[in-house]
Amino acid sequence: MNQERIYKVLLGPHISEKSANVEAGLNQYVFKVSRDATKPEIKKAIETLFEVKVKSVQVANVRGKAKGFGRIRGRRPDWKKAYVTLPEGQKIEQLGS
Fold it and tell me: What whole-number distance in Å separates Cα of residue 49 and Cα of residue 29?
């Protein structure tokens, strides 16, 4: 995987109440990733960018919500998130942990 692809795989951290709970309890971090990203690519990107060892990666495809504005109906785009589990004793400092 080239350096350019590493930066395109991860779109950013996904900050929510649920992601804060899994971070504290299970040593997992949640990231918004590109729709075509695979588990090995996500693992490689996390290990390269944050210099940690990744234990496992689970991905979830999230459907965009249907929204309306008056009579106009539309949908937000679908997206993918990744739950990245780290071994005990490691954490990602840049995310504010």
Answer: 14
